[in-house]
Amino acid sequence: MLRGEPLPSVWIAPGAVDDPRGLLRFGRLEEILVPVGPVVAAPGAPGAALIHGTGPGGLDHAGSPGIGLVEAVGRLRWCATRGLRCVVAVRGGSPGEPATLAGRLSRGLEGDAVAAVEVDLRGTDDQHCLKVMARVREETPRDLLILARLSALQPDLVASARGAVAGGAGAVVVCGSVPLGAGRWWSGPSTAAVCRAGVRALAEAAVDGRWPPVPVVAAGGVHDGDSARAALREGARAVQLGSALWADPTRLWAVREALDDPGSPDPRRTA
Known about the structure:
Helix content is 34%, strand content 20%. It is of the alpha/beta class and 271 residues long. The strands form two sheets. Strands 1-12-11-8-7-6-5-2 form an eight-stranded parallel β-sheet. The protein has a four-stranded antiparallel β-sheet with strand order 3-4-10-9, with no helix packed on it.
């Protein structure tokens, strides 16, 4: 998809599903962007997830180790043969790594399946965001949508978003996951307030002219239609589902139907 086009109402968080091909058992994927990644230069071994309690509080889990370039190419080819569109998530330890990975995947023979690229910039400052996004922009097709994944707990979220947009981001993903330590995160419904606070901060900053606003995707605590609508009321244009799919993959379609139902109020227009 091109920068400036309307965003799909519901996205899948990169790494939330071990292999997105398994989602075909639950519903049609033609109108949903299939996540590929996170793609990294040197994939690691996955860590064990620790579930705390049985309620909606959340999940203490290891961060996704990512997949390598060869596996990412294979998944893109699988999607291309079925007419599916993908969002490729990339991350790296240096400004050049995400750009190299994104460029290879979006300009290769399987690049026609790439609808967007998401760059993980959580925890970085505005200058790093600017450098990384500028490099990614140089290596990818000119009009391809590039998203910057930022943490709602970023030291200066507005500045980081401003740097990412200056570097070429056409949308920003606000992640509500809470870091617990090296390679571990807290995700789940209890992070909804964190995510919405980040979305609200960007919406208020846009009104004040403190950053050039682009569409915002809320990624944190979205687990049903009500929580998705709440995120949109704060200023998000779309939502991203992650750990909610671990318990019930069909929530992807349920939330999408809740937001796209023409008979229900659209909080993006009534807020």
